[in-house]
């Protein structure tokens, strides 16, 4: 027994993962034991997903090794992990929408009679696996028509068909309703009772305490605690999660809050409901919460990339009816999106090209571009931002993350917006650039700009926010004044622990 | 084989009924054995070629070059027959399959290893293969006297069901359809093609070899077109390097598109494509029975492709809107 | 000038050198001008194609559009419509047919190669259904535009040069031009930057349609007679010119200068083949092979450029 206590069937020894030179996981030891559900928790960006993905073969560690039943192994790909019996269940299931559930389970290894696919076996075995998991899914149903929860279950069944004995659930509960989470837990317990080793990555502490047998807490990429749920409390875990000393300085507001620029009245849309708040001129309002709480969705709707379906939005005192990105820019809304490479920059084009993209019409005369205007406008801003580049014709793809973000900020500051929406403005940005970006945001607010910032980085929220709104499950659940709030208070509200202050 | 009739397969069936009813009202002769025979005569070529296109479109590709593959194979096999008058028909058909497969492999190699877009490659080979047919035949036509009766007999004789004749060509085309159905439904590679067309990244994660199925898909498409070329020689009794198979890609893509095959990949059935081919054949015969000139063919193909596409696009955007509203509820 | 434009530029010189062995007239400017005039229609279509391909789409219907407008205009003129009205009508018709493609691609989010494959059959089919095997003669005063010179250039060539100049300016010096590149590079990022993506696509297709309409007029005037089956495969020529000129079929890359140079390259090659008595069918084959080779060469050039710049890029950060 003591041996088993020391070594799991799968264990990681000194796992270190790096991206772009920065270590996101630092020398972590972890053991997954049979008959046990092991929760890996931490703030957004603490490295929990990266750690899980090393075990599942998605990422290769820079240092350290994975052992399977005491033998060191190299897992080059998720497929190879599956061959070792290690299955990864994603948040967004990787399914084949046009094919039915049974076939989704067996893609790549259909049961055959001779060379021919035996459909009776496909359906028979699929039904058996689904029954075994206690799932009420018709193996002949088209997967495209199933709910996300059921799609996850189909993916799970597929791993089951490979006889997986180690399961990694990476934020699997994020897109699910509470009832669906309960159903998933039934399946997870069933797997555990059968002797499987299970790892779950999550931010939701109530889930951890409902199901986990062991908790590993990560902070800034390092393992800070391994606990048993029976011997601790959610409050203690949160304190361990955020327990770093506050390193960042706070950028105090240098101006008083002016008239509301943006006012949402019970706005509902895809992914959020009845959201009401206002942002005043010169004010920085932060939307905090866990990933999947609906914050980015709110921002998308305000900017008009998606259309809200209910409620009202007022901008500068006028009710907005035409939701479109072009309309938003005309009104004076700027939006720095979360996914920089997908939505923020055009990687092959120059700094000037990118910086002026949203303001081209104003920098041109009747549609004709004057090159010197563009360079001048870009030059001014890039100097102000301390942009590190060879020259302004350098392709944005060649810049570091922090400098790319400065280009996106230039693009929007150039439009001289009344409202600046920032979604995770310093993700993947190095510490120096981060400080500069924070300073810049505060300066803009002090000049009278309204700022709505979405951030999962609590030190960032505490450094900048005049007001903090916490979202959970698509709704606003708490509001704090930025000067007095603590990291613990925000985390409690975001995870649903403790008492929420009225919305 | 469980035949799942979905809405997508209903579209050609509905059109088929509409066309037949309209044609019969306009001209009752449409139901005569004579016109039914000409419908059945019209079908084999397009059906055989469409099965290859079905495979390619299911895996998110397209092959525009098939018209020229048909032309080249018809010329090449015609020349083989000219040189060896006694060649058995079966061997001639096999030669067509082989020649088509080789041309298909040219497309396949450029797409798989040259990493070029299938549109560019097959537009290029559309003309390249046509020119190759000229080069091979030195611009000369293969005259009717050179095509053995055994080959033309595939078109002129067949199984008789009362006044209706199921020509051997039709039987060959149906055999090809059967093979395509078996390949797509019962082989690992067939299922991999669907998986890849449905979700390329997920298919890769599950160990589907993308290169292998891309190569195979375009090769099979070429092989089907090559066979069609020999059938063409049998049906028309002569082969002109300039006109054999010209614009055939349009008929075939129209049949596949209206046959319920998803343009975005991952879904398509042999049954739907068969219905699409039957629909096209009926439209053609209906036009001629109703005394509308053959000059209306091209515009009909264009219209059919567009109708199929627009139906797809509109139904998708309606579905997406509904989903978004649901999600917001 | 980027590496992609060097390729057609150098190839022109190589081709000229090679063909001059066939006939010394390859260094006679008048001979070259007279022959290039034959390719003005291809050139106009290629200029439009450049826009469409840079947005990440393709237009296979340009040839059919050209023939349909050509036939409709001929019919108008035949029925006694004044010339200036007919010319205006042709431009409008071409634009509308092009915009229809764009609308289907942008609003219904359909793949452009299928939409335009459908309209390729449809537009030419309308011309065929309308005219049948008959041909329409153009009135004498409308004929022979290629015989007239303007500032030393035959009119069709002059129109092509002007069109590529104007379109080059639009592509490289206007807001719309930048949007075209942005949409072809990253559609989502373009939407997030407030670019009216749908409108950009529709406009690009409409411009191509307009130029196809103008080509239809030139064709009418040059030949003096139209039939539905003229200029088959001209869309292939246009696409080949664009690709040869360095326009990436994946979108986001290309220049008008490249297309302009590539047109002359094609003109030189086709003239050379004509002088060398290469039959029309083989010429087509050579163009097909050239298209594929050009696409392969561009891929290779990009690969080399990437190797050359093999400075380590920052790896993708975790999502």
Furnish the topology, listing elements before pairings.
The complex is a heterotrimer of chains A (503), B (329) and C (319).
Chain A: H1 2-6, E1 10-19, E2 22-32, E3 36-41, H2 48-55, E4 63-68, E5 71-73, H3 78-83, E6 86-89, H4 101-106, E7 112-113, E8 116-117, H5 119-132, H6 148-160, E9 166-170, H7 178-193, E10 197-201, H8 205-211, E11 214-219, E12 222-227, H9 234-242, E13 260-269, E14 272-280, E15 284-289, H10 295-303, E16 310-315, E17 318-319, H11 325-331, E18 333-336, H12 340-344, H13 351-355, H14 360-363, E19 364-365, E20 368-369, H15 371-385, H16 401-414, E21 419-423, H17 431-446, E22 450-454, H18 458-464, E23 467-472, E24 475-481, H19 487-495
Parallel strand pairs in A: 3-10, 3-11, 6-9, 9-10, 15-22, 15-23, 18-21, 21-22
Antiparallel strand pairs in A: 1-2, 1-4, 4-5, 7-8, 11-12, 13-14, 13-16, 16-17, 19-20, 23-24
Helix pairs in contact in A: 9-19, 15-16
Chain B: H1 7-26, H2 33-58, H3 66-83, H4 89-112, H5 118-137, H6 149-156, E1 158-161, E2 164-167, H7 168-186, H8 188-198, H9 200-205, H10 210-236, H11 248-258, H12 270-289, H13 297-328
Antiparallel strand pairs in B: 1-2
Helix pairs in contact in B: 1-12, 2-7, 2-10, 2-11, 2-12, 3-4, 3-5, 3-10, 4-5, 4-10, 6-10, 7-8, 8-10, 11-12, 11-13
Chain C: H1 3-20, H2 29-36, H3 40-54, H4 62-78, H5 83-107, H6 112-131, E1 136-137, E2 149-150, E3 153-154, H7 155-173, H8 175-185, H9 187-192, H10 197-223, E4 225-226, H11 234-244, H12 256-275, H13 280-308
Antiparallel strand pairs in C: 1-4, 2-3
Helix pairs in contact in C: 1-12, 3-7, 3-8, 3-10, 3-11, 3-12, 4-5, 4-6, 4-10, 5-6, 5-10, 7-8, 8-10, 11-12, 11-13
């Amino acid at each position: 027994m003591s041996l088993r206590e020391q070594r799991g069937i799968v264990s990681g020894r000194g796992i270190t993962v790096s991206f772009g030179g920065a270590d996101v996981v630092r020398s972590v030891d972890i053991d997954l034991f049979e008959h046990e559900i092991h929760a890996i928790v931490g703030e957004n960006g603490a490295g929990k997903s990266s750690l899980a993905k090393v075990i599942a073969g998605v990422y290769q560690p820079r240092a350290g090794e994975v052992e399977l039943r005491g033998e060191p192994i190299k897992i080059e790909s998720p497929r190879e992990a599956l061959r070792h019996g290690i299955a990864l269940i994603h948040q967004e299931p990787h399914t084949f929408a046009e094919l039915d559930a049974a076939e989704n389970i067996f893609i790549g290894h259909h049961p055959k009679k001779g060379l021919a696919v035996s459909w009776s076996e496909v359906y028979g075995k699929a039904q058996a696996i689904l029954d075994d998991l206690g799932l009420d899914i018709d193996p002949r149903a088209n997967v495209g028509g199933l709910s996300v929860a059921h799609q996850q279950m189909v993916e799970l069944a597929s791993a089951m068909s490979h006889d997986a004995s180690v399961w990694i659930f990476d934020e699997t509960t994020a897109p699910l309703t509470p009832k669906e989470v309960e159903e998933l837990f039934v399946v997870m317990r069933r797997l555990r009772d059968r002797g499987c080793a299970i790892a779950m990555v999550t931010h939701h502490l109530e889930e951890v305490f409902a199901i986990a047998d062991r908790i590993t807490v990560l902070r800034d990429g390092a393992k800070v605690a391994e606990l048993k749920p029976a011997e601790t409390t959610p409050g203690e875990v949160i304190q361990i999660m955020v327990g770093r000393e506050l390193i960042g300085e706070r950028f105090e507001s240098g101006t008083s809050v002016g008239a509301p620029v943006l006012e949402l009245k019970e706005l509902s849309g895809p992914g959020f409901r009845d959201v009401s708040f206002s942002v005043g001129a010169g004010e920085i309002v932060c939307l905090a919460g866990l990933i999947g709480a609906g914050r980015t969705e709110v921002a998308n709707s305000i900017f008009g990339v998606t259309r809200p379906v209910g409620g009202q939005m007022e901008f500068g005192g006028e009710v907005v009816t035409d939701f479109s990105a072009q309309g938003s820019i005309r009104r004076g809304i700027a939006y720095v999106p979360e996914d920089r490479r997908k939505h923020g920059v055009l990687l092959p084009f120059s700094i000037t090209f990118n910086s002026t993209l949203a303001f081209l019409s104003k920098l041109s005369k009747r549609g004709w571009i004057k090159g010197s205007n563009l360079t001048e406008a870009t030059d001014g801003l890039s100097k102000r931002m301390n942009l590190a580049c060879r020259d302004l014709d350098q392709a944005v793809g060649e810049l570091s993350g922090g400098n790319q973000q400065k280009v996106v900020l230039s693009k929007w500051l150039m439009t001289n917006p009344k409202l600046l929406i920032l979604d995770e403005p310093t993700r993947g940005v190095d510490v120096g650039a981060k400080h500069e970006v924070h300073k810049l945001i505060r300066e803009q607010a002090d000049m009278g700009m309204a700022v709505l910032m979405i951030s999962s980085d609590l030190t960032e929220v505490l450094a900048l926010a005049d007001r903090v709104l916490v979202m959970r499950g698509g709704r606003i659940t708490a509001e704090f004044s930025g000067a007095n709030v603590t990291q613990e208070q925000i985390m409690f509200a975001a995870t649903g622990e403790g008492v929420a202050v009225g919305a | 084989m469980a035949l799942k009739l979905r809405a997508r397969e209903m579209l050609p069936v509905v059109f088929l009924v509409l066309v037949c009813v309209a044609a019969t009202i306009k001209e009752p002769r449409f139901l005569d054995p004579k016109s039914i025979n000409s419908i059945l005569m019209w079908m084999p070529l397009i059906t055989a070629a469409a099965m290859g296109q079905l495979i390619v479109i299911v895996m998110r590709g397209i092959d525009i070059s098939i018209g020229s593959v048909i032309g080249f194979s018809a010329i090449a096999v015609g020349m083989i027959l000219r040189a060896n008058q006694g060649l058995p028909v079966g061997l001639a058909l096999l030669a067509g399959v082989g020649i088509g497969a080789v041309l298909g492999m040219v497309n396949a190699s450029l797409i798989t290893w040259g990493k070029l877009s299938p549109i560019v490659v097959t537009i290029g080979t559309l003309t390249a293969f046509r020119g190759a047919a000229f080069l091979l035949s030195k611009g000369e036509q293969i005259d009717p006297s050179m095509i053995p009766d055994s080959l033309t007999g595939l078109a002129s004789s067949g199984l008789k069901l009362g006044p209706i004749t199921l020509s051997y060509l039709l039987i060959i085309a149906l055999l090809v359809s059967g093979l395509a159905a078996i390949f797509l439904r019962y082989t690992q590679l067939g299922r991999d093609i669907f998986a890849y067309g449905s979700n390329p990244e997920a298919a890769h994660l599950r160990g589907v070899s993308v290169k292998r199925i891309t190569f195979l898909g375009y090769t099979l498409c070429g092989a089907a077109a090559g066979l069609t070329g020999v059938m063409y020689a049998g049906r028309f009794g002569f082969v002109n390097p300039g006109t054999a198979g010209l614009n055939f890609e349009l008929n075939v893509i129209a049949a596949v598109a209206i046959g319920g095959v998803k343009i975005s990949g991952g879904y398509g059935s042999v049954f739907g494509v068969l219905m699409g081919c039957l629909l096209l054949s009926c439209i053609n015969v209906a036009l001629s029975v109703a005394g509308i000139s053959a000059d209306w063919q091209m515009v009909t193909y264009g219209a059919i492709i567009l109708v199929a596409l627009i139906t797809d696009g509109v139904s998708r955007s309606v579905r997406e809107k509904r989903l978004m509203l649901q999600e917001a509820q | 000038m980027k590496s992609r434009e060097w390729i057609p530029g150098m190839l022109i010189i190589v081709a000229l050198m090679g063909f001059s062995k066939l006939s010394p007239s390859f260094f006679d400017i008048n001979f070259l001008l007279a022959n290039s005039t034959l390719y003005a229609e291809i050139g106009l279509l290629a200029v439009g194609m450049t826009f469409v391909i840079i947005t990440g789409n393709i237009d296979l219907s340009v040839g059919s559009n050209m023939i349909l407008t050509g036939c409709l205009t001929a019919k108008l003129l035949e029925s006694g419509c004044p010339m200036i009205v007919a010319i205006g009508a042709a431009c409008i018709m071409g634009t509308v047919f092009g915009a229809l493609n764009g609308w289907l691609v942008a609003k219904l989010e359909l793949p452009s190669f299928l939409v335009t494959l459908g309209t390729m059959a449809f537009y030419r089919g309308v011309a065929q259904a309308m005219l049948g095997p008959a041909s329409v003669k153009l009135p004498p005063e409308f004929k022979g535009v290629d015989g007239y010179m303007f500032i030393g250039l035959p009119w069709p060539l002059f129109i092509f040069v002007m069109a590529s100049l104007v379109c080059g300016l639009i592509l490289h010096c206007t807001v719309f031009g930048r949007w075209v590149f942005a949409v072809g590079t990253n559609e989502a990022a373009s939407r997030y930057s407030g670019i009216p993506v749908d409108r950009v696509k529709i406009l690009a297709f409409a411009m191509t349609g307009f130029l196809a309409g103008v080509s239809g007029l030139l064709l009418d005037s040059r030949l003096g007679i139209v039939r539905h089956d003229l200029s088959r495969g001209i869309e292939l020529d246009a696409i080949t010119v664009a690709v040869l000129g360095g326009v990436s079929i994946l979108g986001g890359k290309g220049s008008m200068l490249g297309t302009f140079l590539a047109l002359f390259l094609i003109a030189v090659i086709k003239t050379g083949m004509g002088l060398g008595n290469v039959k029309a069918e083989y010429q087509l084959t050579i163009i097909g092979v050239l298209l594929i080779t050009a696409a392969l060469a561009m891929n290779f050039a990009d690969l080399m450029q990437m190797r050359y710049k093999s400075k380590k890029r920052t790896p993708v950060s975790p999502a």
